[in-house]
TrEMBL record:
Species whose genome carries this gene: Exilibacterium tricleocarpae
Record protein name field: S1/P1 nuclease
Signal peptide (UniProt feature, chain positions): 1-27
GO biological process: DNA catabolic process
PANTHER family in the cross-refs: ENDONUCLEASE 4
Amino acid sequence: MIHQIPLTAAWLAALLMSALLSGNTYAFEKLGHRLICDIAWREIKATTRQSVSDLLRQSSHQTLADGCTWADRIRDRPQYAFLKPQHYINLPRHATVLPRKRSCGDTTCITEAIVYYTAVLRGDPVSDRRYLNTRPQALLMLGHLVGDIHQPLHVSYADDLGGNRVQVSLLGTATNLHRLWDRDLIARQTPNWRSAGAGLFATISARQRVAWADTDIYNWADESLTLTRAIYAELPADGRLDDTYFTRHNPVVIRRIKMAGIRLARLLDSVL
Ligand SMILES: [Zn+2]
């Protein structure tokens, strides 16, 4: 982890430069998903990229990075309300690992949704009406949900709505614990996602690609749960977080974004 700090500092400097040089700004909330899917796009095989392009065209998206924000853009439309539980999984406070069977209980949730959309994308004959069932939709959902499962607070607790009800402040600015990890810890400036994605992709080593090769989505969720438990354990009672919180946890968020991108690429390569 230590060797990542100079890289991250360099990356933040690059972000600042690109934010200053570029007229493009993007909603911060979408940044994490765009970076993950930009990394995946750069990583996938040429043949996979062709299949992804065909599916994106069918859903009127220009880039995978934009396609991966679709699941959040449709969240509040009534006809898609049934998809909301698929962005996360709730666990008991005492849980240290996910149950491997029936992890979602009686509803749908992120683990089973990733398994299901993988089957749809592969072309398996499935048609469960609790999910979306076309291959372009499955690509958009998978691209988004592989990101979400790597964000710690998407593997957390129902009683505070995954940290949405936990008020905190970062450097004096009010936010909540969920948004902090979804958005506020990624970067101090809103960067151009293409140059930021290229910058992150360039720092992923061969050794990391091997270390992150785990294809078991339950292990991905367990990693997030371990982070979530640590996040709650160290949260100060007054919720006031200073610069050292950002400095320590920004590399964690960046690492999760890179891991999600590489793992999404492997998943797409395996089914397309
Ligand atoms: Zn989501």
